[in-house]
Amino acid sequence: MKTRRVGLVGITGYAGMEVARLLAGHPALRLVMACSRAEAGKRLGELYPFLEKLPGADVVISVFEAEKAAAGCDIVFLAVPAGTAMGMAVPLLAYGTKVVDFSADFRLRSRQAYEEWYSRSHNAPDLLREAVYGIPELYAEQIAGARLVANPGCYPTCSILGLYAALKNDLIETGGIVIDAKSGASGAGRKSAVETLFCEVSDTFRAYGLPRHRHTPEIEQEVSLLAGRDVRLSFNPHLVPMNRGILATVYASLKYPRMSAEEAHEAFSRTWEGSRWVRVLPQGALPETRFVRGGMFCDISVVADQRTGRLIVLSAIDNLCRGAAGQAIANANLMCGLPVETGLTLAPVV
Amino acid sequence: MKTRRVGLVGITGYAGMEVARLLAGHPALRLVMACSRAEAGKRLGELYPFLEKLPGADVVISVFEAEKAAAGCDIVFLAVPAGTAMGMAVPLLAYGTKVVDFSADFRLRSRQAYEEWYSRSHNAPDLLREAVYGIPELYAEQIAGARLVANPGCYPTCSILGLYAALKNDLIETGGIVIDAKSGASGAGRKSAVETLFCEVSDTFRAYGLPRHRHTPEIEQEVSLLAGRDVRLSFNPHLVPMNRGILATVYASLKYPRMSAEEAHEAFSRTWEGSRWVRVLPQGALPETRFVRGGMFCDISVVADQRTGRLIVLSAIDNLCRGAAGQAIANANLMCGLPVETGLTLAPVV
Amino acid sequence: MKTRRVGLVGITGYAGMEVARLLAGHPALRLVMACSRAEAGKRLGELYPFLEKLPGADVVISVFEAEKAAAGCDIVFLAVPAGTAMGMAVPLLAYGTKVVDFSADFRLRSRQAYEEWYSRSHNAPDLLREAVYGIPELYAEQIAGARLVANPGCYPTCSILGLYAALKNDLIETGGIVIDAKSGASGAGRKSAVETLFCEVSDTFRAYGLPRHRHTPEIEQEVSLLAGRDVRLSFNPHLVPMNRGILATVYASLKYPRMSAEEAHEAFSRTWEGSRWVRVLPQGALPETRFVRGGMFCDISVVADQRTGRLIVLSAIDNLCRGAAGQAIANANLMCGLPVETGLTLAPVV
Amino acid sequence: MKTRRVGLVGITGYAGMEVARLLAGHPALRLVMACSRAEAGKRLGELYPFLEKLPGADVVISVFEAEKAAAGCDIVFLAVPAGTAMGMAVPLLAYGTKVVDFSADFRLRSRQAYEEWYSRSHNAPDLLREAVYGIPELYAEQIAGARLVANPGCYPTCSILGLYAALKNDLIETGGIVIDAKSGASGAGRKSAVETLFCEVSDTFRAYGLPRHRHTPEIEQEVSLLAGRDVRLSFNPHLVPMNRGILATVYASLKYPRMSAEEAHEAFSRTWEGSRWVRVLPQGALPETRFVRGGMFCDISVVADQRTGRLIVLSAIDNLCRGAAGQAIANANLMCGLPVETGLTLAPVV
Questions:
Q1: Domains of chain D with CATH codes
Q2: Are B323 and B170 in contact (CB under 8 A)?
Q3: To the nearest whole angstrom, how far is the Cα of B27 from the nearest Cα of chain C?
């Protein structure tokens, strides 16, 4: 298999670590550049002992320079904060390198929405139109032809995949949708902070960021596209004392309140039949984040409750693999002409 | 302070352990009897090493006999499964002993609801009318005069306290309420089972029992009484990898969608002003289960979201103390003519 | 009970939080002053939501000034880093206030040992001679008469109590002692740092700081005093993914290799008979940190293994309560003429 | 690559689950049979939702029959309890199938030692002489030619690899070795039991089984072989509130007490130079179980402490992969003529 050279900017976060882990086992994408201002000069294996004796361990961390990155890499992953990413993507694209951006900088099609939710002006608005939203199940063809892919947020990936079959099959009212989402602590990032210390997260549970978490407009954008109309919904995240994983519990009103549990399940099963990574669980079974740990699966259950007229969807992913690094690699696979699953046929680590 | 003699039937579960812990520091209620068929003959301190050198450690565990229990105890706590409890309560009351029942046997006023949700016939329906639902904030007076108190479920305690101010102040529509609740693993009980082994709960997250968890009718009963009309709501529990604690996230439609966050917060604050154990957090703060760990507090936040027309209430309690043993002791205090907070002024163990 | 006024300098750490928790339920020691440069001006309840509606919540955090502290407090707890504490203790004592110091500044009798292990000169060497090492089981009388108590480290408290009976009964060789200690993450303190983030501590286990952890000389000092000769030992700490608790596993050579398990157990039991807080477990039982959580107990098991000629002692405490704040309060009780256990008869929160 | 057919007896435990995970990604070993009396008739994917859409999910669980197993499989993994395994191995070998046994039945060369430590007579003593102890780093050649491999215990694998370089380089006295080992809860197995419930393991720490844990004779056997003399040592296991991982802290007396830290480190590095899976960390770094999670690495640090005359070795593995299923597959690879690392080049899941 022909090798493509991959650069990774932003190596110190959990998404960057996960890219390094996944590329260590990838047959065609080779990590050739890793950038971090703070850690420049170290070998990657020195920074991440888990990587020693594996491919990538000997890459020496460097400071990002667009021209050099473009010269050395076929594709670059930007795992840096929103606001920083757009300033790197513009020159990389100009030099002809492909880009998968992990930040929110290119996820929203509307510049106005970006500026409102992120309190920052966007300095590459043309790219907002060009960037493809990187969920392979929804946009495989466009991703394959893209120069710039906006890698989706972890919560949006989980929520959108969860709602997809309900919207495609017209099972629910689009008003009044509530997403109650729960994430492991790696979602909070790998930066020193008292509020994510072990003792502040362990053996406790809390909500955060509601009712205006920044993943809201991204979910609303994609749900609106699926619904064919503007949808406003309530998205509310919580922090679970675990490392990895997201479970989204989605509540919507059944369009036909007498719909049976069997009918709803059958619609979901049909929609996702043959999907590589979306697994609709048998009726009665409910997803658990551990069953998708470290892999690309999205496990979905659907419950139609006639008593309350509600459709409840439960959707689980690994936030670092499916919700970030793994999905980025799936997108890179498509952008490089490789089968989408290359290097990603991972059994969950239970 | 005059001492009252307390008996505890069902010592091997987490609620029983918590009763033993709390009574070890209680100035007026003294544990004089502890019953368990499986552990009969052991000293309580032998079963629970944490209790050694504390009051109660020397109680010898015995097999329950109603007559003997009634003779030796002023009040008996039944921490046994639903179905078993009613068979014990009847003779105890007949012998003139007061009873606080931890099970669901006397929580529902409707025999029909009980039989439907618990798939079992009720053999003491007269007591359903007599039993008082033991949330001190709602029913202190009736509890003080009761022979039989039905100690509420952990989820219902948390949910009902969370919804109370919204209903009292008529802030929400009573249709379409969703309660997304999350509990630590002690809620699953202390019985050997593969699905609650450490490795099956740790580092994972899942829903369970939805959409027909047995705490639903109990919540609906009390919410209906507060609302003055029949309310049907959607209650959905999840399992958090932590020991103790419940957080309920409650979603409802704002009656007046233009209600500001300040107005909602003010209504909640006013309603709970002066409450001993319900703490409405400052606007912008959100509850965490660790801040109520091991104590009687119920921490509540309210968020009015004009963008989606929703009122979101977050309510947190300790499931074993406020949600079971502590609330039982508060009820026993009232039933014995003691101040409700006797032995319960506990700072949370953060 | 006459009230004594307590000041607490260093409120943002876990030991400070635990002092606040314990004083909220203390009948005679009242928190009247809390100092922190970073949080000055806030109410204590604002900083620590768990404290609201409890005694101490309304104390307004201030910046430490020795004269003011001395004027307003009968006793001051210094929960600040080593090096800082000595500069505060000197003026406080000069103004006539009693001091319990949580840091290492006054634990070592030898100035040279302090300067060697802490790489810092000691600027109040006279106080090294005066300060009393605050383990009530060993030095109750001296503590009662002291102006300055050096509150012991958490590991030393656990290790010294564990070794006490072995040394007193001359069961072991004093050469070649190994202490393999394991602590929860609260021992690492409440400061922002990547290495104690939830995701860096959870679901993993590691050693740290060995073979020259700073608690070593403190343990060697007290063990030498008990043994009546200079003892050099190997102390090696590990980090456990839990909040609270320390378990020390102590290995020593049996002086009489044919000593039976019964004899060893009997010697330990006899030594600690009647102790308020040290519990020697029944033969065959082993301590668990949860059984001492949040309280003052030290649970000890002793195992004599003829096969290898070893005595193994297991000793467990709560690092924040017995290993810091609770022991400080016990010392303060003694220094104020109160019974040592005042406010500390706490059942562990299992 | 030519496919070999693998049978797995004992699918319900954690080791069996891990075999299923690892074989799902193995290019040459194909799971064709999975046996469990309790779960017979189910598809493997039904039992383990994490396995759906992966190789092996469609295997239908059956009841073990030696003849059928031998007919259908080139090699059989026995992941059943000690005592049961020997009864299965005898007929399988007689029918000509190769066997990797996960239990202790064939690990000890001495029948007497087996019968003493396992309180059970051995009914296939001839096989004790034939079986090869399956640590590839020590016995690759013999494994390649074996019909029956005794897959080592998790603790022994970690301890023996940790001690190997110290013994080979004659750095330590062989008397007085202490191994203080710590394991995650998956080591306790996947059987319903109160003592391994989440609430009994989480947020606590304890020792167990000491001083006569059954892994002791296995470690002593291999250490004695390496040392060239009979070694008796003290092995003491502890339970860590985490899922996977073992850390062994090994204490020994330095043969030459003036040996420097550098010399010791150099000896270890030299010994393991070029090893595929044993990683000697840089001086000053200490292993963490998360850095080997889910993979085959054994991370080792060595600390020579002149102050106490001790050599301290820290050794970390994943107990389920390196300590059970992964090592079994490495052995199976060798027995089938495949490169030892086939299907096992796994980056740890941090």
A1: 4-151+322-335 (3.40.50.720), 155-319 (3.30.360.10)
A2: no
A3: 12
DSSP B237: E
Per the document, the length of chain A is 350
What does each C-alpha distance from C141 to C98, C128, C157, C341 come to in angstroms? Answer: 16, 18, 18, 15
Cα gap D166→D281, rounded to integer Å: 15
Which of B191, B192, B198 is the closest to D198 by Cβ? B198
| Beta carbons of A192 and C188 less than 8 angstroms apart | no
B-D C-beta contacts closer than 8 Å:
64
Cβ count within 10 A of residue C183: 25
**Distance separating alpha carbons of residues C79 and C19, to the nearest angstrom:** 9
Amino acid occupying residue C137:
E
CA distance B343 to B25: 6
- Residue B80's nearest CA partner among B58, B102, B59, B62 is B102
CA A201 from chain centre, in angstroms, equals: 23
Q: How many CB atoms lie within 10 A of CB B65?
A: 11
What is the DSSP-derived secondary structure letter of residue A155?
Answer: H
Which chain C residues are Cβ-neighbours of B282 within 8 angstroms?
46
Q: What is the DSSP letter of C251?
A: E
Which residues in chain A touch residue D288, judged by CB atoms under 8 angstroms apart? 49
Distance CA B225, CA A191 (A): 48
What are the beta bridge partners of residue A317?
A: A246
Helix, strand, or coil (residue C177): coil
D313 secondary structure, DSSP code? E
| Residue B142, both tokens | 């009736």
For C226-259, how does the pLDDT look when each residue is reduced to its tens digit (9 = 90+)? Answer: 999 999 999 999 999 999 999 999 999 999 999 9
CB atoms within 10 A of CB D58: 12
pLDDT digit string, tens, across residues C52-95: 999 999 999 999 999 999 999 999 999 999 999 999 999 999 99
Q: Which single residue is written with the structure tokens 């955060």?
A: A208
Q: Supply C97's token pair.
A: 């206030």
Q: What is the pLDDT of residues D240-270, one digit of tens each?
A: 999 999 999 999 999 999 999 999 999 999 9
Mapping DSSP onto H, E and C, the string for C108-134 reads CCCHHHHHHHHCCCCCCHHHHHHCEEC
DSSP string, B313-325: EEEEE-TTIIIII
* CA–CA distance, D110 with D91 (Å, rounded to integer): 22
Pick the closest to residue B153 from B108, B186, B104, B84 (CA basis).
B104
The conformation of residue D93, written as its DSSP 8-state character, comes to: H
User: Mind telling me how many Å the CA of C152 is from chain A's nearest CA?
Assistant: 22
Q: How far apart are CA A239 and CA B205, in angstroms?
A: 11
What b/e readout covers C289-314, taking b as 16+ CB neighbours within 10 angstroms? bbbbbbbbbbbbbbbbbeebbbbbbb
Per-residue pLDDT at A1 exceeds 90: no
Cα separation of A201 and A195, whole Å? Answer: 7
Using an 8 Å CB-CB cutoff, list residues of chain A that contact chain B. 176, 178, 180, 182, 184, 202-208, 210-212, 232-234, 236, 238, 240-245, 247, 249, 251, 253, 286-290, 293, 303, 305, 307-308, 310, 312, 314, 316
Question: What is the C-alpha to C-alpha distance for residues A245 and A183, in angstroms, rounded to an integer?
Answer: 6
ipTM > 0.95 (yes/no): yes
Nearest CA-CA partner of A329 in A169, A126, A166, A102: A102
What residues contact A206, with CB distance under 8 A and at least 6 apart?
Answer: A238, A239, B247, B286, B287, B288, B289
Sequence-separated (6 or more) residues with CB below 8 Å from residue D349? A21, A293, A294, A349, D293, D294, D295
The per-residue pLDDT for C1 is 74
Find, among A241, C334, D48, the residue nearest to B203 by Cα.
Answer: A241
Q: Do C226 and C168 form a contact (C-beta atoms < 8 A)?
A: yes
